[in-house]
Amino acid sequence: MHLSATSIPSGPLCCFRSDAENFHGSRRILEVIPVIATKRAPSLQLAISKSKGGIGVITMRDRSKNRKPLQRGRNLSIEAIQTVQALKRAKKDTNSLEREIQSKVRRLLKWDLIAVLRELQRQNEPLLALKVFEEVQKESWYKPQMLLYADMISVLASNGMLDIVERLFLYLKMESSLDADTEGFNALLKTLMEFGTTGLVMDCFHLMKAVRCEPDKSTFRILIDGLELKGEATLSAIARKEAEKHFGGLEFLEENQDLTLSSN
């Protein structure tokens, strides 16, 4: 039996069940089973399964459920998705890329613009993400945030773009009204330590003190453990002295080791 597009009922989604036992000559009977439609038309994917009785069931599932959320509790909007796709298509041509930035990126609302930045970082598109990051910095609502810098530097460093990392860190140091965000500084310290840039690690720690951001125990664990692993005994000793000033001792390092051993 040939089932044309016009013979499929419109409206609610349907699945089709073919019964292998119901043959009349060469004809196969198809039963249309209505399924309750969702409010939005999803992106669908067909899946075929068979039961023991030879019944094949064609079902449709929503592929959009597989899409990872960009931010906690927030999915990419249609505008954000289209912008990401347009930027990726145009990335090999400077003129085309600039047109897409002007026509799409600069028209996005705040949360969509941040969403595009996060998605490009997630898809490991460092140079495109950097372009969008620069557009974020031009917005009137922009305030320098350590976590934004930490995420951007992490993507660049993981792609070996350490020269750009150094330039971006210089821009970070020139930012006015930088928030005293301990979590953001710790994230950046961890990234810089991971990619072996100990000079920038210490610069970041000095910047942390310059903006009067209070280091916590995690800050000193990152510094002391990381510097010792890299054989930077002198720098590690400096970090230990700083930790002693803040906490009156280094017992918290032993506490961390005890927690690690107990978890194993």
TrEMBL record:
It holds the Pfam family PPR_2. GO terms for molecular function: RNA binding. Keywords: Repeat. GO terms for biological process: chloroplast organization; Group II intron splicing. The keyword Iron-sulfur does not apply. InterPro entries: PPR_rpt, THA8-like, TPR-like_helical_dom_sf. The keyword Repeat applies. It comes from the Eukaryota. This is Pentatricopeptide repeat-containing protein.
